[in-house]
Amino acid sequence: MSPRLPSIPRRGLSLTLILLLGLAGCAVNPPAQPRSIAVTASEDATLRATLAMLAERGFVIRQADGDLRQIDAVLASRSGYEIHAEVTGGSQRPPGLVLQNGDTYLTLSGRRGGQPLDAVSLDPLFIDVQRRLGLLP
User: Fold this and answer.
1) Which residues pair with 84 in a beta bridge?
2) Most CB atoms closer than 10 Å: which of 16, 18, 28, 106?
3) Kind of pairing between the strands at 115-116 and 97-100
4) DSSP of 50-73, one letter per residue?
5) Residue 5 — φ and ψ, nearest 5°?
6) Within a 13 Å sphere around the CA of 78, how many CA atoms are in the beta-carbon half?
7) Could you count the other beta carbons within 10 Å of the beta carbon of residue 57?
8) Is 90 exceeded by the pLDDT of residue 6?
9) CB neighbours (10 Å) of residue 29?
10) Is 42 left (phi over 0), alpha (psi -120 to 50) or beta?
11) DSSP structure class, residue 77
12) Given a cut of 60, is residue 8 above it in pLDDT?
């Protein structure tokens, strides 16, 4: 007679399978892809224009740090719509640079419903900041 393996109660086996399937179905959200432009304005002016643009568009500013030159904001009218803005300067080019007109860099990234925002969603924000800085006609 062959040795018998210990039996696992059906209920325990079912619960284990459900948990494993649930964990396998967990999706990892892809990272938000940053998009950057370079402008001829100062870092402080670019940060102020970005802050004003977000506030005027109905974003709630969660954090704005002048020393780090970063802004985190969420759109009050849409749950799960968030923007991260960062202003940098110098010779190191930021990721996602699409327009080089100066040495001050504005980088935007964001999420809507846990998914990264695409360029079509971020471009109007860049245009608004450039207009506020007087860089567009």
Assistant:
1) 72, 109
2) 106
3) unpaired
4) HHHHHHHTTEEEEEEETTTTEEEE
5) -75, 150
6) 14
7) 15
8) no
9) 10
10) beta
11) T
12) no
pLDDT in tens, 45-103: 999 999 999 999 999 999 999 999 999 999 988 778 999 999 999 888 998 898 888 99
> CA 4 to CA 47: how far, in whole Å?
71
What predicted TM-score, i.e. pTM, was given to this entire model? Answer: 0.77
How far is residue 12's CA from residue 52's CA, in Å, rounded to a whole number? 57
- Position of tokens 């209920």? 11
CATH code of 35-132, in short, is 3.30.310
User: What DSSP designation does 48 have?
Assistant: H
For every residue of 92-131, DSSP letters joined together read: SPPTTEEEESSSEEEEEEEEETTEEP-HHHHHHHHHHHHH
Structure tokens belonging to residue 92: 């190191």
Other C-beta atoms closer than 10 Å to the C-beta of 41 total 21
